[in-house]
Amino acid sequence: MNGIVDDYRLNLGGSEYVPIIVGGMGVDISTAELALEACRLGGIGHISDAMSMRLADQKFGEKFTKKKTARYIDTKDLMDKSTVKFDLEHVRRAQYEFVESVMMRKQGPGSVFINVMEKLTMGAPADTLRVRLSAAMDAGIEGITLSAGLHMHSLRLVADHPRFRDVNFGIIVSSVRALKIFLRGGARVDRLPDYVIVEGPLAGGHLGFSSEDWHEYRLEDIVAEVLAFLKAESLDIPVIPAGGVFTGTDAATYLAEGASAVQVATRFTITEECGLPSRAKQRYLAAQEEDVCVSEVSSTGYPLRMLRESPCLGSNVAPQCEPFGYVLDKDGTCLYLDAYEATGVDANGNKLPVNDRICLCYHFAKMNCYTCGHYVYRLKDTTYQNEDGSYQLLSAEHVFRDYQYSREHAIALPGRLL
Predict the structure, then answer these.
(1) What is the pTM of this model?
(2) DSSP readout, 105-167?
(3) Range of the domain at 218
(4) φ and ψ at 351, to 5 degrees?
C-alpha cells in the first residue's frame, strides 16, 4: 500500500507543501483564482504568462494590444512581419502588473509560481524572455517554471537579478536527455534547477513527443529514468511527474516510488475557478476517448493534444501578428504565416480553410483551441450530469482535497446541487 498523498510533503526552498502542484495553463485558464486556491490549501498553484499583454488589457484596462496594432497597421496585409516587435516596456509592465496583483492577494501556507513558455519567441526571443522573467521576479513571484523549450540559456538571461538565487526555478522536461541539456546550461551560471517536472506523453497542450510515437512512452518509465540519473549524479533535486496523474492513488504511487510531488491540471479544468468558458468546460465533460487527438497544427512546431472538434481547426483567419505575434521568431516568421500564404482561395476569391496550421495567438486568445490531457474523457466520472444534459462543475478545493485524501483510485463526487 502506498498510503495517500497527505502522507507526504514536498520540501522546496526551505518550505514544506502538500505535494500537489496545479499546472500553469494559458491563456488565463490557470487563473489567479485557481492558483491562489491551491496556495491557500497548502500546495503550489501556477499562473501562466502566455500573452500577458492581452491579460493586462483585460484585467487592468491597459491598451497594449491596441497600441501595438496601431503601430504596425501598415504590415497587416503583408506576409513580411520582420518589423513587428513588442515594446519591451509594455511587456515589462504587463508582466509586473499581473504578477503583483496575484501576489498581493496570496493567503495560506502554499506558494504561487508562474509558468513561462520559452516557445513564445515574440519576435525577439532573448530580449522578451529576459523582461518576462525579470518582471515576474520584481513583482514577487515565488517560483518560475520554464516550459516549452530546452532552456539552455534562460537562466543566464537573469543571472544578475537580485532574486536570482532566491526564487525557485524549475523546468519541464520529457526525457533525461533534455534534463542533461538544461543542467549544462545551468552549470554556466552555477545554478541547478530547484525542481524538475517530468511531463509524460498523456499531458495536455504542447508535448515533448512526436505525434507519431507519443504512445510508445510511459510517464512512469521516464520518471524512473530521471530519478536514477539524478541519484547516479548525486543530485538532490525534487522530481515531479505530470501528465495522466488522474487520481490521488496515481499520485501516491509516484510519491512512494521517490517523486517529491505531482503536477496536475486536467481535473481542474472543470472547476469554477478555471478560466475556460462554460462551453469548453461542458465540451470537456462530454468528451469521449476517440474525441482526443495529438495534432501538428500548432504554429510553435510542437505537437498539441486537443479535442478533434476544437473551433480553431479549419479556420482561415488572417495572421494576427500586429495585435499579437507571440510566436514570431527573430526574423518575423511563423509556421502559420507560411501555411496561410500557401493556402489558395475559392472561385469567389475567399480564402480556403488553412488545414495544416492554426493561428495560435488568435485562437488561444479566443479560447477556441480545446487543448486537454489524454484523460479528459474521464472527467464525466468525477461529477454529476444534470437533467438538461449539462454537467455540474466542481470547486478547486473539492478536486484538491480529493487528490490529497482519496484511496484505491476512488474519486469523491461533489454534493449534488438542487
Answers:
(1) 0.96
(2) T--SSSEEEEEEETT--TTSHHHHHHHHHHHHHHTT-SEEEEESS--SSHHHHTTTSTTTTTS
(3) 5-275+387-405
(4) -65, 130
Cell of 59: 484585467
User: How many structural domains comprise the chain?
Assistant: 1
End-to-end CA distance of the chain: 38
In a domain, 229, yes or no: yes
pLDDT of residue 234 exceeding 90, the answer is yes
Average pLDDT, the chain: 95
> Any idea of the CA torsion for 249, 253, 256, 262, to the nearest 10 degrees?
-80
The three-state (H, E, C) secondary structure of 357-409, written as one string: CCCHHHHHHCCCCCECCHHHHHHHHHCCECCCCCECCECHHHHHHHHHHCCCC
Note the maximum CA span of the chain: 67
Q: Is residue 379 part of a domain?
A: no
pLDDT digits (tens, 9 = 90+) for 57-100: 999 999 999 999 999 999 999 999 999 999 999 999 999 999 99
In a domain, 230, yes or no: yes
Residue 88, phi then psi, degrees to nearest 5:
-65, -30
Tell whether 378 is covered by a domain.
no
Which CATH number belongs to the domain containing residue 25 in this structure? Answer: 3.20.20.70
Residue 3 per-residue DSSP state:
-
